[in-house]
Amino acid sequence: MSEVYAARRERLRERCTAGGSAAALISRPANVRYLAGAAPQGAVLLLGKGEDLLLCTGPPGDEPAQGRLDEALRVQLLEGPGGDPAVAAADCAGAQGAESLAVEEHHLTVARHRAIRSVAPRLRLADIGGAVEQLRVVKDEEEISFLRIGAEIADQALGELLESILVGRTERHLALELERRLVDHGADGPAFATSVATGPNSGRRGHRPTDRRVEEGDFLSVCLGATYRGYRCEIGRTFVIGTSPAEWQIELYDLVFAAQRAGREALAPGAAYRDVDRAARQALDSTGHAEGLPPLTGHGVGLEIDEDPQLAPAAMGKLDACVPVTVEPGVHLPGRGGVRIDDTLVVRPEADGGPELLTITTKELLAL
To answer: What pTM was estimated for this model as a whole?
Structure first.
C-alpha cells in the first residue's frame, strides 16, 4: 500500500505546485488517513519541500480499525504535552525553505490559523480548498472492497434483526441491538447513529430512536451502516409489522420503491448529479409528495458517510466510474409514518454490468 499512498500524495503535490505552493498542511482526519494510511488523534500531515512528515502528539497505534500507517512516511512526535501538530508542521515547512504553505481553511479554526501565522510569519498561507476531498471521490478497488465488506456486515446485522420478535420492543433498544450486531460481525463500529423509526416516526430522515414501542400494523423504517477499515456504507429499509400492509402503505411503498429504482438506474459514468436526483424525484413529484422530499436523493460514501458527490437538484458535476454513492429517497406523512429505501452502489459502466449494488437485503415490502 505504500506506493498507493505515495501516489495519492504526489497527485496532491502536483495540484499544490500548480497553485503556487511548494508545501501543504493536511489537518482534516479523513484526509490525513487517505494520504497517510492512518490518522492518529490530532495528527497532521505535512507535504514538505524536502520530505513528507506525519506530526502527532503520541505514537500511532497498530489496530487495523485505525488504519495502517504508510511505512515510508516519517513520523515526528511532538516533545512535551500541549503542543499543536499543525503549528509544528508550519514551523517545519519554514525550516525546509518553503515560501508558501497550502492549508485546509475549511478545517482550521481561526485560532489555529493565527497560531500558524505567528510561528511562521514569512510563510504565505494559501487555501487548498477541497482538493483532497476531490481526490477521494473516485475509489480504487481496495477501497471498494472495504465498502463491499461493510455492506455485507450491515446486511447480515439487519437480516438477523428481522428474524427476531419485534412487537413491544422500543426503537432505542432495536437501534442498540443493531449496532452491537455490526461489531459482532466484524465492523469497526456503526458508520453513523443507527436510526430505527416506528409508526408515525417511520420514514423520517435522520430520526433519532425514542422509547416508542413497536406495534402491530406499524411501518418500521431502519437506516444503518457499518464501518470497515475506516470505510462507511449505508442501507435503509422499511417493513410492516405483524400483519398484511394496509392499502395506503402498499401505495406509498410502491411509490418510493419506483423512485429509488429510477435513481439507481440513472447511475452511470457521465450522468449529471442533478439528473440522478431528478430521476428519483420526478416519480414522487408527480404524485403530490414534493413538499416532503429530502433535500437530496443521495451522496458519496467512503472514509466519511457523507462525501462528494451530492445528488441534489442544484448539484453541479458528473459521475465517474468507481464512485460509490447512496440512493435514498423517502416520504414521511405527518401523523401516519412513511417509507425510506436506501442503498449503497458503485457507479460502473454498462459494459461492466452497470451500477454495482453493495447492499442486497430484499426491498420487498415484508410483513414481519
So the answer is: 0.94
